[in-house]
Structures are given as structure tokens and as C-alpha cells.
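Suppose a classmate hands you a notebook page containing two proteins, each written out with its sequence and a corresponding row of C-alpha cells. How would you begin to make sense of it? This section walks through that situation. The first entry is reproduced here exactly as it would appear on such a page.
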Amino acid sequence: MGCRMGARQGHRPSAKARRKRGSALGLAATAAVVASVMAAVMVPGSALAQNVTYSEFKFGILAHDVHFLGGKESGVDINPEVIFQSPVADAWVAQLPWYLGWMVQPRPTLGAVFNTAGFTNQYYLGATWTWQLARDVLRPGDGINFGIFFGPGFNDGQKIARQPDRKSLGSHVLFREAFELGYLITPGYEISVYLDHVSNAGLLRQNQSLNEVGARIGVRF
């Protein structure tokens, strides 16, 4: 009897295990998308992938700590971001082999994520790499862009959660990664879907990540 009950219980993972599984599946799916895009970017002599190097202002509305990726916190996030022109000149990049040229024009980035429900706010800086994967898709002058951000993120959340609806982040300084897939309506305006992830990469005992998903508008300047 005890064995049967144990077996039945073994088929019912805890809420914590389900959250971890959801987070792992979500990140695995993201990694698969990123790998596919990077494979296209790195094709020798590709006429598609071109470095995006200009300055932009982004404004996003994001779902905070989404539950299908193991979330606890809630609310809507406001995400302003400024991406500055890459300091690396096109003429210098043109002299490099194809397998280096795609990655040497990062754009300095500053941004914030303000939660409207009183949960964790974030501030970040780092670098954004963006490539135009296709152009003149629906009409002349439009295009498809893909971007990756990496850098440190600073937060006002809880290192060790004191309420059941808060995350134990482990630190006020975390690693931040973000992925964006955008449609360039015109050379000056873009709409996009956006996903970000912050955690301490398991360096601390407490490491409950935050993940946001949403949409953004970009304006070139």
C-alpha cells in the first residue's frame, strides 16, 4: 500500500517542480529560436543578415514575471530604453572576415523596467547586437530585425523572499539577457516582441529568475 501511494505521489510534481520545468522549457525554446537565428546570421556571404548600428529609443509594455516561465510576481511593466549608435565604424568592420563582422558592432544600451503593481523594478546597462535578417518583406523599406542584449541588471527586489508572491533573487545585481524580434515598418519605426531574463546564473543559493514578455515600439534618432 505504501509503495502504491509513493508511486502515485511520484507522478504529481510539486508546484516548485512545475515552475522549474516551465522555466526550463521556456528557456530551451528561447535558446532554440536564438540558435536558429544565429545560424542564419553566420552564413558565409549571406545577403540577409546585416548589422544594425544606429541609435534608437524603445518603449515597451511587458507582462511581469510571466507565470508560464515559473513566475510568482505580477503586474505590468513599463520599459523605456535608449540604444546608442555603435562606436565601431562600418569601414573597419568591412575589413574583417565574415565570421567576425557580425558580432563586433554592439550598441551601448541603458534601460529600466518599472513595475506598476509594486513588485520588482529593474535598471540595466550593457550592449545590444542587432541584425537585419530580411528587407523589403511586405513593401520597400521594411524589414525583419533580431536583437540580443547582455549586461548587468540592478533591482530593488528581495534577496530572500518574505512573501509567497515575491521572488528570492539572491542579489540586487543580476545577469540580464534579452531577445527581440521586430518588424521595421519604415527605416525609422519598428514594432517588436520582446523577452528578457534576469538571474544570478546559479552563483548564489537563492536564484529565482524574473522573466518578462511583451511588445515594444522603436524610434530611430
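The notebook's second entry, a different protein, reads as follows.
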Amino acid sequence: MSNSTFNHFVDITKRLRKECPWDREQTHASIRHSLIEEAYEVVEAIDNNRLDDLRKELGDILLQVVFHSNIAEEEQAFTLDDVIKSITDKLIFRHPHIFGDTKVENAEHVKQNWEKLKMKEGRTSLMEGVPKELPALLRAHRLQEKASKVGFDWEKKEDTWKKVNEEMRELHQAIDEGNQEQVEGEFGDLLFALVNYARFIDVNPENALRRTVDKFITRFQYIERRLKELGKDIHSSSLEEMDGLWDEAKKGT
């Protein structure tokens, strides 16, 4: 991309900010959801290997970055140049094996150095830097990864599975005792333990659950479609009928 192309794009966003009534009214807070939505659309394009969609969605992400920077510049907080300089400096600082004389042996060594360098940037805890807005499964996975970098982790996957079974027993006990608050807590502990096990078998739990949800949607929509073809209403269909069609759907997915 040439500088003229980028500058033309920035000029358009600034004109919209001045002349469009809707754009003019927006704040960081009012469009925060758009940034999240656009990020998920990028992920969806990647998951579906739709490169044309990915090109478009990355443009939408770029718009969000520039638009937030424009708002900040109006408030005299920072500029787009400041944003670019900040990420440039960060990349150089966090890659001393490229821009300095640090030696690394593999990608894992790079990740370990990365966490140490983050602490030098002023963070006081390894747990910082994982946004609360992340989906809970993904957040749990990232936090566990960070803890493992300093050796706070199980040694074998068998140990993590024992923890899963332990949390399962505690959940059943809480259910038997009828304490709903405790049930919710133990259920969370069980999910956290499963995320730990997922790491040890090289599974990203967020991606795994997303695929399962998509599979459920596909199979359920098959049931809806087949019932409609049979002239039946899903609201009055029996569980037995739907289970039979579910089994049909499973054969195709």
C-alpha cells in the first residue's frame, strides 16, 4: 500500500467525522461493540477460508483503528501517528532476537522471552494483558498459558484429567446439597479444569466449542428442513421424530 492510498483513506475518515451527522456523534464507547463485531467477522472469514471476505473484513478493522485515532486526536489525547509509533516500538522491543543480539532456539523460547519483556514494560502481574471481554473459555486458556510459562502447571496430562474427575465429583456433591451458588462455582471449576486438559492435548477449547456449536446448528437445521419437507411442524413433532432425524444428520456431518 502506498502512502498516498493510506493518506487518502485517512482523509476520507476525517471528512466523514466532520460532515456526516452519525459519524460526528460517535465516541470511543458508542462504537466499542463495532470493533468486537468486526474482529469476529475477521475470524469467521479465516475459519471459512474466504480470502475475499477476509480482505473486506480487515478493511473494516482498519477503519475502526483509524476512527478511534481520529476521535482521540480531536480530544488531543493521541494521534494515528502515535498509535503507529507505539506498535512499531513495541515490535522492536519484543523481538530482540531480530533487532538485537538475543539468541533464541525455537518458537517456545520466543514466547517465554515475550512474557519477560511484557513485565519490563511496566506490568506488575503475569495475569495482566488478557482482556476481560474475551470469551471465558479463551480467557481461561490464555491465563493458563501465561502461568505455565513460569512453571505453574501440571506435569502430565494424566494429572489434569484427575483434576477434571475431582471437579466433577465436587459438582455432583454441590448438586446433591442443593446449593445453587456452590453449583455454579463448581461448574466453573470443572470448565476451567477441562480447559487445562485441552492445553495438554493441544486443543484450543474456544475453537473446539465453536466448531461443535456450528455442527449443532447444521444438524438442527437439517431437522427443521426435513420436517418441513414432510409437512410437519417442529413445534408439534415428538422428540423421537427429531432424534431420528438427528441421527440422519449425523451421518452427513
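A careful reader of the second entry would note: The longest helix spans residues 205-229.
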